[in-house]
Specification:
single chain, 4-stranded antiparallel β-sheet, binds adenosine-5'-diphosphate, binds magnesium ion
Length: 260
């Protein structure tokens, strides 16, 4: 499996500087979360890491190889991204959506072969969607749709999975379901995961490392214990809160008190 490294990344949209001097390293098999207020550049960073957008300055490395010199198809075989805003696909079955994940592995005009079908089935099974395989996306709950998108990413057989707010719009049981699935895939496949999360407590619970973005810069990064502190709540999220220890899940968590 692979790691990924960003060295001194700068991204502008026109005149506007959106990412400034970003350095980030994610080692093989880690789960890393990116947190930060709205508009701090989280989605932009994920897009740069997956080469959906090209940084104005700086380089990204997949293991030791420069991302900008790897053919697009090869990148898609190594890395899958689940964007924050997805295309609305409703007149498509789960099975067909998931099969799109195989496209980076096919030659032009080639159809899915037996092995591809097996991988599609594996991804559907891994995400617990076997019973819904031939259902239309339109007729699934938010959580089931989200799992179908994750299944599509898995069918890509990536070594690195990038998820942009994978739990948004899901109720709490589906949120946990998605995060447990991510954790399980990370363990069983040694999948490297980088995800943007809104919920700081979930980031603290599921991540090896957390990167905090504030106004396009890395404010700080480290283990959940090092990051989830009063200073983070105050300086980055403008709230006061208390930090506690979750002894069941062995991670810190916080309870907010008030907005500053
Ligand atoms: N395509 C774009 N063109 C111009 N500005 C953009 C574009 N995408 C995002 N931005 C701006 O860049 C900043 C960072 O956006 P984004 O990376 O989506 O933040 P986040 O995901 O942390 O909420 C925001 O101010 C946003 O308005
Ligand atoms: Mg975003």
């Amino acid at each position: 499996m692979m790691g990924i490294k960003a060295v001194d990344i700068h991204v502008n949209y026109g005149e506007k500087k959106v990412l400034n001097n970003i350095n980030l390293e994610v080692k093989d098999g880690q789960i890393v979360s990116i947190i930060g207020p709205n508009g701090s550049g989280k989605s932009t960073l994920l897009k740069a890491l997956s080469r959906c957008i090209k940084p104005n300055k700086g380089s990204i490395y997949l293991d030791e190889e420069k991302l900008s010199s790897i053919p697009t198809k090869k990148i898609a075989q190594k890395m899958a991204i689940l964007p924050q805003v997805k295309n609305v696909l409703s007149d498509i079955t789960v099975r067909n959506l998931v099969s799109y994940g195989r496209f980076p592995h096919l030659n032009f005009g080639q159809r899915l072969n037996r092995e591809d079908e097996d991988i599609v089935n594996w991804a559907i099974e891994k995400t617990g969607l076997m019973d819904l395989k031939y259902r239309y996306m339109a007729n699934l709950s938010g959580g089931e749709q989200q799992r179908a998108w994750i299944a599509m990413s898995l069918a890509q057989k990536p070594e690195i999975l990038l998820l942009d707010e994978p739990t948004t719009f899901l109720d709490i049981s589906y949120q946990l379901e998605v995060l447990q699935l991510v954790k399980e895939l990370n363990k069983s496949l040694n999948l490297t995961v980088i995800m943007v999360l809104h919920d700081l407590n979930q980031a603290a619970r599921y991540s090896d490392n957390i990167f905090v973005l504030k106004q396009g810069r890395i404010w700080e990064w480290g283990k959940p214990e090092e990051i989830l502190k009063g200073k983070l709540l105050k300086d980055v999220f403008r709230i006061d809160g208390h930090i506690y220890r979750d002894r069941v899940n062995c991670c810190p968590y916080f309870i907010p008190h008030k907005v500053n």
